[in-house]
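Here comes just one.
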Amino acid sequence: MADQEHTYKFNVSMSCGGCSGAVNRVLGKLEGVQSYEVSLEKQEALVVAKPGLDYETVLKTIKKTGKKVNSGFVDGESRSIEVAE
């Protein structure tokens, strides 16, 4: 399974354009991201990841912005949003 791309979707609490901008910035810098879309309106971040970029890495990256992640999905299946410290 590691040799294919995956779609990760996160429901993120973002209250303004600055919030979604912060998420946009960190995803733009993350290695292994094929494409991404951050929607303030839908309160979500959608990431198409190249093989090798795992869910947890993307989750941690979004959490680093200080935004609350409410839910996460991998290829449409719900995943835990707890990050192992």
In short: The chain has a mean pLDDT of 94. The beta strands are 6-12, 33-39, 44-49, 69-74, 77-79.
